[in-house]
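1st attempt posting a full record on here, be nice pls
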Amino acid sequence: SLAISPDGKTLAAVTLTFPPSVSLQFWNLATWTRTRVAAAELVGAALAFSPDGKTIASAGEDGVVRIWDVAMDKEPKRGAAHAGTVWSLAFSTNGRLLASVGDDELVHIWDLYDQREMYALKGHVGTIYAVAFLPDGQRVVSAGADHLIRVWHSDSGEELFKLDGHLLRIASLSVRADGRVLASAGDEKKILLWDL
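the predicted structure (as tokens):
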């Protein structure tokens, strides 16, 4: 798993080395030097930086969402566990909310300030592989094995609408900076663009 900080200066990577150990590593992209290493408990499937770059969320096979201080002065905070692997994480633009998705078919929305789960949104059938917030922070999109993209209201948990156009699993979502266009891609080896 890889993530680049919002300022483009730091790369975070979950790595597996020999002899078997897992670590969360931070690299300075200007000098290509490793700046910090922290032990990670299980192989990570998902990483996401907060918008201010001070926090990184990680999750993986054990289903636990961990919130790290990038300065690494302390152990990560742990969120409640998913049932199964977590495949994708996304922060809202203000950094208050974190969305996580995975094998449990739920879109979890966490309030990091109050340290609580706000919603576990049900609608997908099968593993959810991708999640993203729109820049307005009011909407979150999710997609996965059921070939559908669902758009949710992050404050109410209501499903606003769904987008249907893929024939196979959707593995990736990306939102244009202005929030008007969503790109989705998956096993069909094509990218679909959606007007929002």
